[in-house]
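To assess whether the prediction recovers the assembly geometry, we first specified each molecular entity separately, as shown.
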Amino acid sequence: MRSMISRWPLALVAAVACGLPKDADGALERIRDGTLRVGIAENPPWVVVNGAQVSGIEPDLTAELARQLNSRVKTVYGSETLLLESLHRRELDLVVGGFTDDSPWKREVAFSKPYHQDRQKRNHVLALPPGENAWLMRVEAYLHDNESRLKALPQ
Amino acid sequence: MNFGRRFYFPPDKWRERKRARRLALISLGVLTSTAILIYLTLGASEAMKTAWVDDLLGMIPPIVLLIAMQLELRKPNERFPYGYFRAVSVAFLATAAVLAFAGFWLLFDAVTKLTARERPALGSMVIFGHQIWSGWAMIGALGYSVVVGVLLGLRKRPVADALKDKALDADADMNRAGWMSEGAAIIGILLVGYGKWWGDAAAAGLISINIIHDGVHSLREVLADLMDETPTKLGGVEKEELPKRIKRAAEELDWVKKARVRLREQGHVLNGDVFVVPRGDDVKVTQIEDASRALARMDWRIYNLTVMPVSALSDDAVPKAADGH
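The predicted structure of the complete assembly is given in tokenized form:
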């Protein structure tokens, strides 16, 4: 009994080795060489909407990430509430709108690690669908790679 | 105030008692370290939060046991003429209640998570500049906690056996509940890692049923103790043979015709009465005192054993089952 208890965690770790986490719904596989569905909620200077023209810090981040993953961006405009509800239902892959980590939506969607702290000491995050942990890891890897540039944003 | 003799632990039991105290102190230290470690890796995982609360609850049994062991050595006084031995029963009650509560809480938590279809988000964390999946850090913290939980539980059992200490035995159950729920959390995090979002709630739910079983079992045991149940074996309802043996020993005394015995467990010690029907009317006080001393020596736990001469044993004086008739 004793030896069994001490052996099974090792066996499990050996069996799974690498490649974790995976997505519950296969988001990353769908996005890579596919389509990235992005919700856009206006919140200057993070997200600036000017007619059909979208700009700002977070849309720039999204475009660069999509380039890296060779995916086509499909944008959806809407209010923060509608977009985050869609995100909770996994109808979107990413929502940008200048969200901070003290958002009350914390339990409904998955927020990335903070990529920037603004002058009001609020930590800025991107919103992702819950349970898509490989996708979350990928986004956070991208933010981590650009850490120094993002920390130094003049806001 | 002290009628009759004072209670002393025999030297070997005193050593076990010291060991029990040391184990309680080690438990507190270790649980503090695992609670800190799990708190640092907590993140968004509900399973980790459950394991953390479990760790905090696990500190209650060693704390109450330490207090009870301190109290039980106090001499009887005007206010507590029977001494403080029941403090250990109170510790047992607290431990059993915590164990049962932990089980129900875990089950409730798992069911709400499953019905809410909550999908846990476990992202990355950066350690020494490397980005790793936070699940690995959680599994590391939980794994450490499982190993120390198993070791603590294994060390407590033999001491609980030697002292016939039900509170310590229930504390070992609490350790087992802790490491089992942490093991479930590890499996849950791995399942989440594989994209099976329901994994950790389902694992936690299954484990909670086991913990509830232990808790309810302990509660029934301690409530029976507080109802002055006859001494029972550790972790069960099986009656001890001791009352029967004392009855037989009493009846072997040449001045005793018949005897009946009733005993009750009060923490570490046993108290009770021996009713004897003498052969003649000329019983001496010294005979009664000698009998009381001799019978009390039959088990180290016996503290107050009153030998009471009676003219006849009426059935309503002693419940028949108490001495095995």
